[in-house]
Structures are given as C-alpha cells and as structure tokens.
Amino acid sequence: MTTYRLFHMPGACSRVAMNALCELQIPFDDAAVNIFQGEQRAPPYLSKNPKGKVPALQVGDNILTELAAILIYLDGQNPGQLLPPTEDPVVRAQHWADLIWCSNTLHAIARSIFMPARIAPGAEAAVRETANAQLAPIVADIERRIGDGWWHGEVWSITDVYVSWCLGMAAMGGFELGAHPSIVAHAERVRSRPSFEDALDRERKAIERQGIQLPPGVRL
User: Fold this and answer.
1) Which residues is 64 bridged to in the sheet?
2) Beta strand pairing status for 4-8 and 29-32?
3) In terms of C-beta density within 10 A (0-12 exposed, 13-18 middle, 19 or more buried), how is residue 161 classed?
4) Can you name the CATH fold of 4-81+195-210?
5) Distance (Å, rounded) from C-alpha 106 to C-alpha 38?
6) Buried b (16+ CB within 10 A) or exposed e, 120-150
7) Percent helix, strand and coil across the chain, each rounded to 5?
8) How does DSSP assign 36-65, residue by residue?
9) Which of these, 59, 83, 86, 102, could form a disulfide with 91 (CB 3.0-4.6 Å)?
10) Contact of 91 with 79, CB cutoff 8 Å
11) Residues of the chain with CATH 1.20.1050.10
C-alpha cells in the first residue's frame, strides 16, 4: 500500500495539496515546515526536498515537488475526482494547463502583491503597484468565467481551490476584492466544502502541535 506524507506550511499554497488529499480521502501524514523560521532551508528538510520549498509530497520512498505537479499526479491516480472526468486527452491537458497557469502566472502575481520585498527589496511599492495592475484584468476574467458557479461550470475542481488561494493571498496583500462579489462568493463556496474544512483543521492542529506563529497579515 502506498503511503503519503505531505510537507506543508499552514496558510501557504500547500493547503491546496492538503485539500486535494482530504477530498480524495487518502490516508496521509502531514509535517509542517515553518518557512517563516527558515526550516525549509535547514538540512533535515533539504535532505528530503533540495528545492527548499513547500509543498512536497512523499509517495512511498519518492518525493514529488511543485504544487501543480503534485495535483496532476493525484489527478492521474484518481481520475475524475479532482478535475472533471474526461476521456479526451486534449481536454485533460487543458485541465492540467489551468493548474500550471495558476502556478506560473496567478500565483506569481499574487505573491508579488503579498510579499513584494521577496521580488525587489527596497522597491516594494513599485512591485506591488505593477502586480496590482497585472492582476486587475485577470480577476475580471475569472469573475466572468466563474459567475455563480465553479471554474468548470457546475462542477467543483481543485482548480477552484488554487485560484481562490491565490486571490486570497493577493487580498491579504491589499488587492481589493470587494468590488468583485462573485469572487468573494466563490471563496466562500470553496471554504464551505468538507474537504477544505478538513484541510484547515489539519493546519490548525499543526500550528498548535509545533507552536507556529503566523506573521502579521497572514490569515488561515
């Protein structure tokens, strides 16, 4: 039987992988890596994931890194449960492309808004202003696509969780989502699912278990 262990940080994008595992009801262990204390760069973690990032998913004796790759792996092992079922390889690739876009584009812009000092120390205001300008038309497109449903229409997918996490991080960095009620309502729908609540509960337990202090502005 394959065993799983997720290395994560409460509040970070690893929550999306946590949500996926909870949605699939796969038994797994979780180990928090306190990135705000530099644990991702310490030898014990680097020996498992030399990239020094979360999430990382241990699958048996192997380590998978990069959130999009982890989600694509889990989708491949459990077809039709994290992304809409399809027998069309082109459609499947399009679904995976959305996850990669979240990772390469949406996530990067949101991170620039929330943590501009990591992009250009000393030029935080300029970085945030540029990222806000980049995100505005993307949010409008997302709002049109989602409406009062999900990324894939009437069907929830793990893409909804990733999109919502990215936009939530941008909001914590000051991006104004109040003018986008469909986005706000979408986030509430994402958070109301039992699998999300299970993931959030695991994060809270990890915080308590390891005495993690989230920095100001970071909300679960």
Assistant:
1) 57
2) parallel
3) buried
4) Glutaredoxin (3.40.30)
5) 25
6) eeeeeeebbebbbeebeebbeebbeebeeeb
7) 60, 10, 30
8) GGTGGGSHHHHTT-TT--S-EEEETTEEEE
9) 86
10) no
11) 89-193
The DSSP code for 66 is S
Which residue carries 């192997």 as its tokens? 62
Tokens of 210: 């390891």
Look up tokens 């104004």; give the residue: 176
Contact present, 6 and 18 (Cβ < 8 Å): yes
Segments of the chain assigned to CATH 3.40.30.10: 4-81+195-210
Q: What are phi and psi of 8, to 5 degrees?
A: -150, 175
**Residue whose entry in the numeric block shows the structure tokens 């990669």:** 100
Instruction: pLDDT tens for the chain, 220 residues: list them.
Output: 889 999 999 999 999 999 999 999 999 999 999 998 999 999 999 999 999 999 999 999 999 999 999 999 999 999 999 999 999 999 999 999 999 999 999 999 999 999 999 899 999 999 999 999 999 999 999 999 999 999 999 999 999 999 999 999 999 999 999 899 999 999 999 999 999 999 999 999 999 999 999 988 788 9
Query: Topology of 89-193 in CATH?
Result: Glutathione S-transferase Yfyf (Class Pi); Chain A, domain 2 (1.20.1050)
On whether the CB atoms of residues 203 and 11 are closer than 8 A, the answer is yes
